[in-house]
């Protein structure tokens, strides 16, 4: 957001001041008022509400360098806003995003360091330069290609920092991508019986996972999958809606969330939980690495989660798997077939 949009060009404080008035030929008391003025910026006439100093006695407009500078800045900011141009602080943040010095960014873009410095101190970029800055900000592949071509010419510190920032950005994109891919897989089940008429919500799912991993010590991956199944199906049975909108499939070890491996990747990559090996290295358990937010759940959902936790708390992974194999929804479906929430009506008692 530009400074103009933020409305930071407020009326200066301490506006009363003694100033020389050329009309009165001596120093007079002066004040500041707001008037409409037009400033030429890049060939456009930009009208702003300008602050000007005037003589209290004769109303003559007086010269005030500070106010003139602020008015010019305001006109430039309005030009940026009207033409969707980056602000000087946004341009600086683009450079900082990649850990570059002004000289480093200039080298990368075949500009002079003074050009970068001017843009960061208020000068408006040319249209071609502005388009390049937008590309640098938004297109990771474009900036990677520039780095590939020029990395040998960068200074040691610029090169090191940019390598680190690019890797960090790639990691962040990868982590977000797993959630996006998983969410897209579930879109076809929106308001569907196979999702318990709930829309898949990764944030809600992650909080359910945190609830179980915090309330059941060292809960295994296999056991977690069954706990998710029972919490969603019990919620649907009692209230007509699943908690997380997760779809479940018939797999050899019992009901399992659709794309459960992708689900686990999203949970671990986004640091919701970590997977730790058991001492005997037979399987892994979940360790919470994020804070649980109970406010996301309704009172009814919390009751369901508590009931499921209390009932299955002492079950081993094998025991809860065997228990789930006796569910009618599992018995009456084939391998990899989706388990309809219609089977929630005949869910075993807990």
Descriptive overview:
This protein has helices at 3-6, 65-82, 88-97, 102-109, 113-120, 127-138, 140-150, 156-186, 202-215, 221-239, 260-269, 299-312, 317-325, 328-331, and strands spanning 17-21, 26-41, 44-55, 61-62, 248-251, 254-257, 273-277, 284-288. With 350 residues, it is α+β, with helices and mostly antiparallel strands. It has 3 domains: 3-82, Ubiquitin-like (UB roll), CATH 3.10.20; 88-174, no CATH class; 190-346, no CATH class. The strands form 3 sheets. A 4-stranded antiparallel sheet has the order 1-2-3-4, covered by helices on one side. Strands 5-6 form a two-stranded antiparallel sheet. The chain starts with a helix and ends in a 19-residue tail after the last helix.
Keywords:
350 residues, 3 domains, 4-stranded antiparallel β-sheet, single chain, disordered N terminus, 8 strands, two-stranded antiparallel sheet, Ubiquitin-like (UB roll), 15% strand, alpha+beta
Helix and strand topology:
Layout (H helix, E strand, L loop, with lengths): L2 H4 L10 E5 L4 E16 L2 E12 L5 E2 L2 H18 L5 H10 L4 H8 L3 H8 L6 H12 L1 H11 L5 H31 L15 H14 L5 H19 L8 E4 L2 E4 L2 H10 L3 E5 L6 E5 L10 H14 L4 H9 L2 H4 L19
Antiparallel strand pairs: 1-2, 2-3, 3-4, 5-6, 7-8
How would you concisely characterize the structure shown here?
This protein is an alpha+beta fold. It folds into 3 domains: 3-82, Ubiquitin-like (UB roll), CATH 3.10.20; 88-174, no CATH class; 190-346, no CATH class.
């Amino acid at each position: 957001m530009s400074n103009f949009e933020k409305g930071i060009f407020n009326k200066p404080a301490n506006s009363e001041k003694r100033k020389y008035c050329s009309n009165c030929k001596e120093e007079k008391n002066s004040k500041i008022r707001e008037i409409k003025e037009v400033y030429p910026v890049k060939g456009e006439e930009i009208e702003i509400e300008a602050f000007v100093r005037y003589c209290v006695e004769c109303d003559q407009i007086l010269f005030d360098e500070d106010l003139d500078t602020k008015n010019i800045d305001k006109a430039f900011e309005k030009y940026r806003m009207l033409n969707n141009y980056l602000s000087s602080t946004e341009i600086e943040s683009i450079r900082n995003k990649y850990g570059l010095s002004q000289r480093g960014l200039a080298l990368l873009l075949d500009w002079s360091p003074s050009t970068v410095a001017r843009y960061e101190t208020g000068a408006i970029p040319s249209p071609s330069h502005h388009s390049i800055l937008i590309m640098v900000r938004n297109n990771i592949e474009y900036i990677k290609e520039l780095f590939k071509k020029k990395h040998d010419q960068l200074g040691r510190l610029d090169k090191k920092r940019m390598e680190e920032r690019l890797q960090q950005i790639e990691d962040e994109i990868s982590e977000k991508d797993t959630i996006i891919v998983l969410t897209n897989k579930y879109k076809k089940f929106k308001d569907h019986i196979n999702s318990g008429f709930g829309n898949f919500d990764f944030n809600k799912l992650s909080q359910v996972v945190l609830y179980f991993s915090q309330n059941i010590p060292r809960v295994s991956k296999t056991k977690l999958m069954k706990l998710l199944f029972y919490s969603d199906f019990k919620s649907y049975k009692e209230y007509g809606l699943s908690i997380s909108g997760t779809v479940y499939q018939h797999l050899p070890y019992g009901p399992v969330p659709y794309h459960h491996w992708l689900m686990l990747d999203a949970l671990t990559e986004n640091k919701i939980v970590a997977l730790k090996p058991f001492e005997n290295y037979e399987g892994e358990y979940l360790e919470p690495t994020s804070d649980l937010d109970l406010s996301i759940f309704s009172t009814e959902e919390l009751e369901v989660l508590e009931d499921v936790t209390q009932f299955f708390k002492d079950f081993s992974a094998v025991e809860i798997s065997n228990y789930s194999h006796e569910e009618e929804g599992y018995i009456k479906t084939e391998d990899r077939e989706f388990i309809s929430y219609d089977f929630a009506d005949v869910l075993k008692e807990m």
